[in-house]
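Materials and Methods. Structural model of AraC-like DNA-binding protein. The 280-residue sequence of AraC-like DNA-binding protein from Paenibacillus peoriae was retrieved and submitted for structure prediction as follows.
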Amino acid sequence: MIEYLPRSKQHSELYLTQFGIEECIPSHFFGPAIRDHYLLHYILDGEGTFEVGGFSYRLRKGQWFLICPQVITYYQADVVNPWSYCWFGFDGALAETLLKQAGLTMTRPILNFEGDHLIYQYLQLMNESSGCHKARETRLTGLLCLMLSELIEFGPVTPPEQKESRAEIYVEKVKDFIEMNYAQKITIEHIANFIGLNRSYLCSLFKQQVNTSIQDYLVRYRINKACEMMGNAELSIGDISRSVGYNDSLLFSKIFKKVKGFSPKHYRTETHAQSQADYW
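The predicted structure was written out as tokens:
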């Protein structure tokens, strides 16, 4: 059983391209060849060999093997105890990240997973989704996400590729908080309470790492966001001001001019004139 799917126009971050199941005859093989998407095989029974990157892996029931896009691979069923497997082809901007979280990469393409019942369940649900007339793409993407979440949850614990210092972690938390909440009336006290550090200590730590204060970083982040909004003619200066956390338009204009050297109105006029010149 195999089903090929059209490229998803709705789910560019992650989408299924095909899925299937096969009981191979002895010595059945594929390759050497490349694929243009990710392909995960799960061995339901039997044995076989998978070759990639100069390495040969002897595989058996209960193991996954990953084929990455544009990588030459070869795989062959055992001559005595040939494998049967199912497979899931997929792609999208999130595919590599999710696979890494499951401990699967081009250099680590094998994963042990004792969960035949779960895999059969996802295969059945994917097959049954053919009855959906309007939401099949969404349902298939959801099932793919659920299946990958099982691999991530029960796969090996993968250490971070680069260990961050505690100071770097706190700095990233500050930046993330500002990115998510810059439109609100946030203060340094709010940020410190959220992270769980003393205000003075956090400010000192941030200054050492970033070479600017948290307050200056927040102000510049807001003003840069405001600049991005200037190209939207439907937004007034007041709309933009409120959208980046300043209910007082006069205060916003004063801060904007201090940071950018122009008033918001002048900046918008100059930016529009420049874009028109670039167009022509």
